Amino acid sequence: MPLPAPQARKHLHTRAVVYRGYQREDGLWDIEAEMTDVRTYAHARSERDVPPGTPIHGMAIRATVDDSLVIRDIASVSDHAPFDECQQGIDPMQLMVGATMGPGWRQAIEKALGGIRGCTHLREMLFNMATAAYQTVPVYRGHLRAQAGLAESASAEPPYHLGKCIAWDFDGAVVARHYPKFAGWLPLKRKA
What we know:
single chain, alpha+beta, Enolase-like, domain 1, four-stranded antiparallel sheet, 22% strand, globular
């Protein structure tokens, strides 16, 4: 899906971020994130020579979560970083064990790892790991329920993602088609 044609320009930087979700044999789930920053020119703000095309940042996180998206274990690495001190951002990641990837996720990250308590880039990766976890765990569990011919949950509360996006508007066509019992849902409107 191409963007409109750009003006004349010079490529300088690429940040690549990839998230992957895995079902483990022990019943838990691994959510992994990898991020690299690569420049097309030599990086000057580093304490080591970073030639063009060599990552200035190369980091990864694996969060192991349960069915409720509670972090049970976390591991992170920084194979490429501009300073030796950047490695000090690895150990604080353990503070995220026990946190839930759901409402309040960003606040939990900032409380545990914000400012100089953690690494900016690892925090950035963590922010979106919750979305990858949601796309992995509940979506796959729903897929398995559907394959088994089981009905969706009969919860009186709508799924968390409803009302969080233009497509999932309680007054919109998508909710009416996929979650008709929550079409026009009023309790949310009273809370707003």
